[in-house]
Amino acid sequence: MDAAVPDTAVSDATGRNAIVIVASTRAAAGGHGGGYEDRTGPVIIHWLTDRGWSAGAPRVVADGQPVADALRAAIAGNAPLVITTGGTGLSPDDSTPEMTLPLLDREIPGFMEELRRRGAEQKPTALLTRGHAGIAGRSIVINLPGSAGGVRDGLDILDGILDHLLDQLAGRKAGH
Asked: Rounded to an integer, what distance in angstroms lies between the CA atom of residue 62 and that of residue 171?
């Protein structure tokens, strides 16, 4: 599969198109080499479609450079929303934050601060997540952890701010 083609984006008339990127070397290996099935990407897709967003199947890529390639393709395709899951911890292969940060024009640090705060209420290890959130070109890019709880917390936060964020990016005066 060519990383230059944002094949997981689905266009629709609303312009609410999203790309979900799963950063997991094990899941990308599939049935080869002891891989496993990703469980967080489908949760994000379901959340998006429940809110009127179009999104294809999650794009599952190995950690490292494939994450950067998939992000670049999504941003180049002007996907309004790009959500990654996985690769935000401290394992040697976890590099989603390093692949994301150079692509961001502006960061949204409060998002990750709140994600860590909420997660730590239930699980102190949530403080170890290193993701980023920000704007790259015309795209909102959000790094979520690869855990079910981290994804749930991130989507809860995003639910409360996404429409306002989209309004601000479009230059519309949003209600406060």
From this structure: 36
